[in-house]
Amino acid sequence: MTAAAKKNNRLATIVxxxxxxxxxxxxxxxxxxxxxxxxxxxxxxxxxTAMFDAQAIDRDMRVxxxxxxxxxxxxDFKPQQGTQQLKVGEQGLAYFEAHNPTNQTIVGTATYxxxxxxxxxxxxxxxxxxxxxxxxxxxxTVVMPVVYFIxxxxxxxxxxxxxxxVTLSYTFFVMxxxxxxxxxxx
Length: 186
Fold this sequence. Notes:
- The protein has helices at residues 3-40, 177-184; strands spanning 47-48, 60-69, 76-79, 83-87, 92-99, 106-115, 123-128, 134-136, 141-150, 165-174.
- By secondary structure, it is of the alpha+beta class.
- It has two domains: 1-40; 46-184, Ctag/Cox11 (Ctag/Cox11 (Pfam 04442)).
- 25% of the residues lie in helices and 37% in strands.
- It has two helices and ten strands.
- The strands form two sheets. Strands 1-7-9-5-3 form a five-stranded mixed β-sheet, with no helix packed on it.
């Protein structure tokens, strides 16, 4: 094999490796970014906690609730309350309602975030419908609770001293048929 052929083979190997690496990173970027957001609270991603153990402090916080559906999701989805006022560290309970007005069973899943984004690290959900897939039969309506609190550690973050209101927002999506088959065991 000539020196030019060896160079060409080496260059082809490098190019193929770079392309395969880029494809691999493209597939891994979404779960890695999701993990990063959950760990750091970046982008308004809330924290999940298994139990409520915070002590309320004398700082008022208003929590606003927002509900959206993806353009492909035919459900009606709304919060049952617009806002709640509570102390930081106090456990809150809010309800969201979803209705399937169609004549077919639809499986949905919700994503969530908190605004302002910098407060996401301190917004903890104890129980939430977004942790599981929701199955609504034709005409079915379901009321779904969210148990949450704002971690008192927010008081130690000087960048959040001016924050007196946070918005918890959900968006429901139709699960893909492939995802539904995984959930239902088909």
